Amino acid sequence: MKTMPSLEERIKALHEEIDRVVAAYVDERAAQVIGVPRGVVEGTVLARANGCACEEYRIVKARLEAERKLADAQVSTG
User: How many domains does the chain contain in total?
Assistant: First the structure.
C-alpha cells in the first residue's frame, strides 16, 4: 500500500515545480534579449514579487496567459 507524502514533502515538491516554471520562463525571455544578463531579465520580470516564490509563479502564469491571448488575437485578425 502506498502512503501519502507528508505535508512537508508536498510543499517541497510544489516549491520545486514553482522554481522550474519560473526559471524556464526567465530562461526563454533571457534568450530573446542577447547581451542582457539573465539576472537583469529575471529582476525585471519578477520585480513585483518581492522575493515571494508563489507570487513569482502567479506573475509568470499571468504573463503566459496574456501572451497567449495576444497571440490568439493576432492570429484571428491576421
Answer: 1
